[in-house]
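Give me the fold.
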Amino acid sequence: MSTPMDVDPEDGAARDDRQMFDSRVILAIDNYRSTNPEVFGEKLSTRAAPKLLHILLSTHSPTGTVPDEETCDEHIIFAPNLLSKLSKAYRNKSFVELLNDVDVRPLTGTTSQVGGGLPASRSIRGLQEAFEEPYQGATHKLLIETLNDYWQSSAGMARPYNLSLSVIQSSGMGKSRMVAEASLSIFTIPINIREELGHGLKTYPPPDTEFRRYFQGHHAKSDLRLQAEYAIVLSVLFTKAAALLETLRFKYKTGAELAYEWAEYLDEGRTDTEVGVNRKVFLDSVVDEARKLKLMELQPDERETQTKLEVLNTGMRKSCDTFVKAMASNDGGAEVKCIIYFDEAHQLTELVPREKNMARSHSPYHNLGTVLSELTEFPVFFIFLSTSSHLQKSAPSPASHPSVRISQGFCLFPPFTELPFDIFAKKVFQSLKGKNKKCSLENVGQTDVMVGFGRSLWYVHHKNWLERGGLSVIPFARDKLMAQGDEAKVFHSRIAALGVRIGITFDNTTQASRITESELVESHMRVVYAIPEHREFMHTGSPSEPILAEAAARCLNDPLDGRGIELQGPEILAQACEKRLLAKGERGELCGRLLVTIAHDIALKQSHSVPNKPSPDPYFHRPVPVIDFLKALFAKPFDAMVLEAKSVTAKADIPDLQTAFANAYVFFSHFALAKNSEMLSAPNLAVALLRGMALQAKDNQKSIDAVIPVHMRHAAEPISPKSTSAINLQFKNRKEAEYCRVSRGITVPDNTMPVISIIFELGDMEMGGEGLVTITHETHRETRGSKNKVHPEDHHYEIVAYGCTSKTFAAVSPAVEPHYQSILAVPTIVEDFPRATKGKSLEAFENLKPFFDGLREFAEWSKQLESD
């Protein structure tokens, strides 16, 4: 693809390209100014310079990976002449020349740079080194076991549509690495059809370029034509693979030993930018032969193509049979003999609109699936790897699948999502112990420990980058979360970041929410938990990943943006509610989790300034004193009431809240879901402190909706269940508050340990003045048996807060109060009726009996009842 860097200034077309580039940059600036008018003024400010550089690079490479604003800011600092150059370009509204400037070229991929997704050769070497790290876990074995289970089931009553399996999961979860490891124990033919990236951009593993090109250019072709072309290329693939097995002098002829030798053969000569020499020769020869056969065998006439397709399918089955026999063992056919996988397979899901091609109804993926349905008698499984989770494309439900065979009872294998997680967690703690360091809040809040939690991407890249210069993985994580700053994906980036921190569950009954979830999985690091066999929706979420939580917090509190989470958070949730993306029953809990997260961030920002440039050290994933957290949560008029609060029993010899929690810390950068009440108990709250997470209780948990673990020692002291307490949270969204209590024993049964409970009556707006925040006190009658015992409520401090405005909470900015009200105001059926204000229409609506109005019904039927 031609870029503005490559054009000749004397050429007319090139001049148009240059003007077009400048126009796109100016448009991007105007779009950003529309929501952030204070950033871009008449002159370019120091604050706006990183944003301008980011826009410039994004426009230059709109589909590729570009540095984030933090990296741009850091680059400007170390290239002092660049600020004046950016200012001049901004003043003259002429930007294209900057792309060739010596101070900008390092960021466009023409020199060696490393950073959050930078397109540099040194970065690619890091990707290769990460890929070649010793494999951790046994997910590759689970994949093979799953394939064997499906193969064995296909020999019974279950008739498979084809022997294919989609592996759908978020970026960085190890899809490619898993199949690469599987290839060492099961014969595998790898095919990577990744698209071309932007100028100077590379990734790893490298693609099989010729094979990718074979699948391109499909838009003008009919379904029959595509099926014929796919039958040809697969037939050639089988034939050439069988020939290689016959001619090459492999030491082993069958099984895992042959698979290992074959994998080593294909990888020979592999570099960071090119596949192995033997792999390239093999696959390129397949494509070359297939192209020749296409010219010889296929004619424009569709009727001839239909006839020819039957012949081609027969030939494909014969070549597959020959291939299987060339590598088969005498095990009776109980196991799959070969995997053929397509990496970056989402390109195959592109569908041509019917009005542009009347002979096309299906995507390349579905046409390929039709061809694969001819091979179900052979123990060869096809795997499609992708982050694309659009179910209607790569994992359609049986009801929406385009094949008639599905409606006739042929089964589809559900996508594989069980990729490894937390596989380096124990390793980082062993390293911590090896350095004679305690498991304290200060130590577990370091990047070296944080990278052990979550997807393996964080640990491996952090390790390799440290070895080559000490750069942090956090800007990289932020880049991945924000889709490399893609201006077209701003809302998805923001809701993804908020979801990482407070946990967002989408309403899977609506098409809009299902599409949004797919986008977040594909481009914003959201994880697929499960795709049911019916495939109508999927279960996704943001599991506990401290690195990603830190990245999300930086996105939501960007000092260059000037709008922290206290403004962005409620705005994002309100937009999500307006789009009907969220489950109605969770709005109160979402608001509650957002409020305490905002309080956490405010407390940090009040004591530490947010860095203006990328930092290798976490900023938001750090301990916060409990007292600072409470002061940041509640409105200032209630500071004294909260801090001087007595316990529920209000005994004189029990210290007030601020004394009891004077040396205590909360440590949570994000929320995670607890499966059961055992996870909410003190021993497991200590486990939560290791990850820096608060816990969201499941729906059926009584009394408590969420828990924030509390470390009752100095931040430098070791974490222990004996020194772990809790802030119990209960969220209610009802217009009239009712008396309720929190059972402190669920989390901390040790009656001598101080515990805080906060009840949020978010929907009750009728309270006023000092009554917006109250402290619970109860008198408990002492008996002879209880006189010398510690009562469960003696060290229990319970706070009740009413409403969701700035009068109650310091965490609520007055500017965003309407957003909170719109989030909490769950529309009723009447409010959703578009003509509810018109009397006759409302009467007709109510006559449909969506509910029974007691006053109306009695008025209508009372006389009838009297007459009887």
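The CA atoms of residues 74 and 97 lie 21 Å apart.
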